[in-house]
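Chapter summary example.
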Amino acid sequence: MSDSSVSQLDLATGKMTALPTIQSGLPTLSWPCGLTFDTKRNQLIVSSLGGDGFLYAYSLQSKQWSMLSNLRGTDLQALTYSAADDSFYGLTTSSLRPGLVHFDASGTALSQVQLSQPIPGGSQGSSWPDQLVAVGDQLAVITPPTVDLYEPEILPQARFFLINPKTGLVNYSGTIVPEPAALLLIPLGMLLLSRPMMLRRHQRLYRR
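The structure predicted for these 208 residues follows.
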């Protein structure tokens, strides 16, 4: 995604192709911030920050855009589709504890809960924001490599949080560690993770 468009990557050829521009009559796409795929309806769902913020749908069959809903100022940094309950979840922006917004399949906001603990990592507008993924009936937040304020001598690490979407309770927290050969230290303390990563159990474990 760029600041005003969404592109499709052909995994076989590596070619990137921009999707058609949103047609007239719909709000202009500005600052897309979340991206997910609705497997039941075979359409791409995009959230944006520009203006009030909107949820858009792109049909792979008709190759046309439509607007699902107006977010009315709710700023999201990540979006995911949950096949378990046929709905969407958005991770809000926050410098402390973000929230989870639950949307039905039509894009209507149903509820919002605050996470039970802070999530260090990316934020809306950053070059490497947090990622939100549905895992069965749970949600996972994956952060970019971030310095641990309690252990600043340790190199920045990506983190993994497993969350109950109904209550916002963080059930598990861990770090994501790349294989040694995949770790490349680059300027400004950022880490480039270029090979498959594995989860390492963290000392903190949260009961449901």
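To summarize the output: The chain has one domain: 7-205.
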